[in-house]
Amino acid sequence: MSKLIINANRPLGKISRFIYGHFSEHLGRCVYNGLYAGEGSAIPNVNGIRSDVTDALRKIKIPALRWPGGCFADEYHWKDGIGEKSKRKKMINTHWGGVTEDNSFGTHEFMELCSQLGCEPYVNGNLGSGGVAEMSEWVEYISCSGGSPMAELRAENGRSEAWGLKFFGVGNENWGCGGNMTAERYADEYRRYQTYLRDYGANRLYKVACGANGGDYRWTKVMMEKCAPMMDGLSLHYYTVCGDWQNKGGAVNFNEEEYYRTLKKALFIGELIENHSRIMDFYDPERRIGLLVDEWGTWHDVEPGTNPGFLYQQNTMRDALAAAVTLNIFNGHCGRISMANLAQTVNVLQAVILTEGEKMLLTPTYHVFDLFKRHQDATLLESYVETKLIGGVNPVPNLHVSASKGETGSICITLANLSCSEDSLVDAHIAGPAIKKITARHICEKPRSHNSFINPNAVRIKDNAGVKITRDGFSFTAPACSVFEIVIN
To answer: Whole-prediction pTM value?
Structure first.
């Protein structure tokens, strides 16, 4: 039996809803045939945006969506994606599959998507191959209400009212696909570019600088030394890769050793966050600057027979558990993390949704976001669970937990059992108000279990009636390979 302790009397900070953000790049079938069907499509849509996809994303309360990349952002020129669609300039997507990009999904379409989702747009500007004026004018086009050249251009294209824009990224992965810059070079470029990103009217930009690749702590140090007063956020990218970048391993065909190795690598993001946070704390002890993990997720080999540049992979319970521990970790570091964005929303990498023509399915990772959505804007609570190491040569704790209290006083506990074979009996103790009502939902299947278009509900959320109120808390059995949401009122 494992003891779980939740101290409802000790709040530890607010969990930003933006930690539960998502990422949509012009990559493979994420945008086209994923989020966007086109106005003339037989697939049900509103202004070209797929209705089934938006309905599903609204259910998990998607708070923010990052676009247009990714590596694509630093070769994207926004003026190519406005105006009459038949006259929009085409380009070759050199990063992802060498396909022709017709720019039929541009600024207006993205802002329409965000409007339908009820989420904040997070736009990533082109620093790698674009100019300062180009980036400055994009912000003006989106957020200036009138009386300027870009506002007039927007009106000519059918939108007189400004949308407003909160989050803006100044380049992407500029240490790599965004220009192969040194930290010093990018810091100088960031200082120059951000100078011309103006606030128009009541709109206030939250400026995000390109941060480190994984454990590149020197990059963070240089950025904090040179740019701290000029930025609101600093990004961090980390992908969970079971093998190496040449042989990442299969998304479905993996063994027990690979299962635990993947979870161990997913848990490593906690160490990265702690180390980058220490550097940021030295220069920013008041924690004004947010850390944005705006690309994270599992990265496996593409599905056989698919375009290798489209990064299409299946999504199993292993991915769901990787997502659960990652989100628990983000919750635990809510004092520094202001946003995170799963890569990517539809049909790419650790997607929450897969589509095939008019068909759509929800992945196990989608269900994790559904189970965790009560944490958005809730107050983190002190929590502790007794664990034991499992996994052999890839040791991981068997249980992983976080807890929060919402505005109404309800407590949400999310717990994952990482063992692929052993159930865990959990005895929970609550320091705080007496429990009047308790409900639980969970997903639980074999590690390789996944949803397909033949069997789209192989993994689904089920109500769990096995959680019992005890004298000072509750008890339940967490089956092997499961993720729980427990709500206390």
So the answer is: 0.97
Tokens of 489: 């009122």
Burial 125-155 (b: 16+ CB within 10 A, else e): bbbbebebeebbbbbbbbbbbeebebbebbe
Q: Residue 11 pairs with which residues in a beta bridge?
A: 381
Based on the residue annotation, tell me whether 356 is a catalytic residue of this protein.
Answer: no
Q: Residue for token digits 């004298």?
A: 471
Cα–Cα distance for residue pair 254/369, rounded to 1 Å: 24
- Angle of helix 269-283 relative to helix 217-227, nearest 10 degrees, comes to 30
From 173, 189, 445, 485, active-site residue: 173
Tell me, yes or no, if 173 is annotated catalytic: yes
Of 485, 480, 437, which Cα lies nearest the Cα of 461? 485
Return d(Cα 169, Cα 386) in angstroms, integer.
40
Mark the ranges of the chain whose per-residue pLDDT is less than 70: none
C-alpha pair distances (Å), 188 with each of 223, 229, 281, 289: 9, 13, 22, 18
Chain centroid to CA 137: how far?
27
Q: Rg of the chain over CA atoms, in angstroms? A: 22
The angle at the Cα of 302, spanning 172 to 444, to the nearest 5 degrees, equals: 100
- The chain-wide mean pLDDT, for the chain, equals 97
DSSP sequence for 44-80: -EETTEEHHHHHHHHHTT--EEEES-SGGGGG--GGG
- Cα angle for residues 265, 266, 269 (degrees, 5° grid): 95
Question: 161-179: b or e for each residue (b if 16 or more CB lie within 10 Å)?
Answer: ebbbbbbbbbbbbbbebbb
Catalytic entry in 101, 295, 445, 485: 295
Q: Where are the beta strands (DSSP E) in 418-455?
A: 424-431, 438-444
pLDDT digits (tens, 9 = 90+) for 9-64: 999 999 999 999 999 999 999 999 999 999 999 999 999 999 999 999 999 999 99
Task: Summarize pLDDT for 235-293 with one digit per residue, the tens.
Answer: 999 999 999 999 999 999 999 999 999 999 999 999 999 999 999 999 999 999 999 99
